[in-house]
Here is the input.
Amino acid sequence: MNLRTTNRLGGCALALAVGVAAHAAGPADVDAGDHAVGRPALTAPPAPAGSMEGPVVTGVLEWYTNQADFEAAAAARGKVNKAVETFEESTQQPNGNGSLNDPLSPGVPNGPFPNGLEGAPNLRVQSNLSGGNPVTPNPRGVDGLVNLSAGFGGAVSDLVMPNFFADSLDLQFSGGNKTAVGGNTVEYTNGGPLGVDIRVYDTSNAYLGQMHFSSNIQGTFFAGVISDVPIGRINVYSPNNAGEGLDNIQLWYTDVQESHCLYRNKRVKAQACNTCPQFTHECDISTPAVCGSVKDCRKRIKQVMACPDNPDGWCKVLHLRCDCK
Ligand SMILES: [Ca+2]
Ligand SMILES: [Ca+2]
Ligand SMILES: [Ca+2]
Ligand SMILES: [Ca+2]
Here is the structure.
């Protein structure tokens, strides 16, 4: 296998050698690795997004490089962090890498993930053949992803990236209620400068915005985005033909408080029973029925209840709807 022709990350000895050399040299001094694959001389890397004062607002998106600020802002808006995906359930041996097919999904066995993703039921990961023009999901399919484990190329934990340098990575979110996503940017350099573009799409795949973030293989940089509308997909792309991804992915939900139909008691008719329940006529009888307004609720509910102390008697109860909250 030849890196120059395939640019394949997983299971490629040449790619490993280049990657390790580049890492040892440090992200800002990667001439050896770069020249080894015959790419043009490097230009200075762009100013790291990690230095930006946050948050930066673009349209409906608010971007963060500081994890604590991101978490505080999300929590202040009533969002709840329901899951964090670390990829640590991978059974990959230390200092290893192995390819897997698109997509990597919750509960679906895939390569080194014997139970698929665990702990983040609304996240799906797959490669995107369209690289830096990821207008729609476009997975490679077979061997589209690679899992790196701690020790490989400088990684400090399990990571999931596209298996081919030219591809980008899509994180897809189901449930329609993810309104803040954060994580540590990770990048397996192919010899170029580091840094990834993060693009955000809504649940209808409409483009919402993008931002450039600092990154490295250790995942020491943070990228977070808070959205006014639910996020359906996030694409991570290295403009420098590298492997890229997010680790420790936080999925924040807007917790929708459901309203329920409330009823008040209208009357109780006793039949051969002296101990029928007494009701206060207050609007305080709750039901599991979910409603948007009181008109969604059944107007009246008739109930026949067993008499508490006479098996031959009963109580007929009539409830009228009174509220939805
Ligand atoms: Ca593991
Ligand atoms: Ca997990
Ligand atoms: Ca990890
Ligand atoms: Ca890539």
